Input
Amino acid sequence: MSAEYEIFVRPRMAGTELNLLDDLTRIAHAEFTPVKPDQEDWYIARPERGAIEVDFHTDFLDDRDIPFSTHPICITVHKPREGTLQDAEMFSQEIYGELVRTDRYDCFLVFNMERLLAIHQR
Output
């Protein structure tokens, strides 16, 4: 199993989900494309700092103190090919911080789907 960082997101305004891709494009300096041509709810970008996947329809159940069920969008940050897990952690924290600064999302950052690292909600 590979170690990954995930950012779970809930837009504060309904119908603004795709604005998240615009924000991520700006933050990561990378273009997102559908993982499969016929699938418009799962996107990927491959900047040098590590691949980023965005899944707009997750169905995870809450686990301990992690509110997965209320945050339907999952952003997965993979470590770069030639990088370290610490590189992925720094990149995911940067993305998380920038999303928080937009004040458009409630979100939280987890490691390997099991350790809550940060949470931002109004």
